[in-house]
Amino acid sequence: MPKQQKNDIELLRTWTLPPAATLGSSVRAHGILLEMRSRLPISSKKSLVLEAGELMLSMPADDKTQFDAAATIVSSAMKDIEDLPVIPREIQDILTIKPGERHRWLADGRLLSAGTRTVRLAGRARQITFHVFDPRVVEDLLDRGLVDQWRDEDVEAAAENRRRAAYKAKLTRSLKNAPKSATSANPASDEADVSLADWEEFGREGFLR
What's the first-to-final CA gap in the chain, in angstroms? Predict the structure, then answer.
């Protein structure tokens, strides 16, 4: 067989991503691909791709040593793939929520964090830190439909806050526009009442004599 023809033969291996790992999200599947690539040597990263729900590693036949090393890394990582933490953009796609909802529910404790992760932005010195989430907790939220319940609670809370704000504003206006009482309008009458109450005792003590 000619050498050129031999070099065209590819080494190929695939790994199927289970539903428990992707949680039905293409964003999550792509995130798993990026995570796998991050564990490979630079020369092997682009050899791993995602196609139709499968991770596919392919290299020329002459790169068998490099291929075997990369395949071993991916196979080892696949053992715990279902426990890979869910990052923000993935949970937003899985639960169909907006960034504002994620921040709000994380702040009030309804959405539980599994810790934080710090990464360096590609090509930059700057690092960012963000919360990650337990995939089993995310799956439970999805199965129980809690997102719809939380949205209903938020609507009710917003309506209640508006009612309270309207009542407070109305009360403030009422106090501001209310007429002053006779007592507050004529403070001298208070002094007169006090002196008359003690008049009899004052006279009995003989201070007028």
Answer: 142
Cα–Cα distance between 52 and 37 in angstroms, integer?
Answer: 17
Which run of H or of E encompasses 86?
none
Prediction pTM value = 0.71
Burial class (CB in 10 A: 0-12, 13-18, 19+), 73: middle
Query: What letter does residue 13 receive in the DSSP assignment?
Result: E
Tens of pLDDT, residue by residue over 137-162, are 999 999 999 999 999 999 998 899 88
Instruction: Say if CB 94 and CB 87 are below 8 A apart.
Output: no
Domain segments of the chain: what residues?
1-81, 85-177
Q: How far is CA 209 from the centre of its chain?
A: 85
Alpha carbon distance 19, 29 (integer Å):
10
Question: What tokens were used for 143?
Answer: 């199965």
Q: How far apart are CA 33 and CA 22, in angstroms?
A: 11
Supply the pLDDT for residue 194: 47
DSSP 88-147: HHHHHHHHT--HHHHHHHHHTTSS----EEEEEPTTSS-EEEEE-B-HHHHHHHHHHTHH
DSSP letter at 46? G
CB 50 within 8 A of CB 42: no
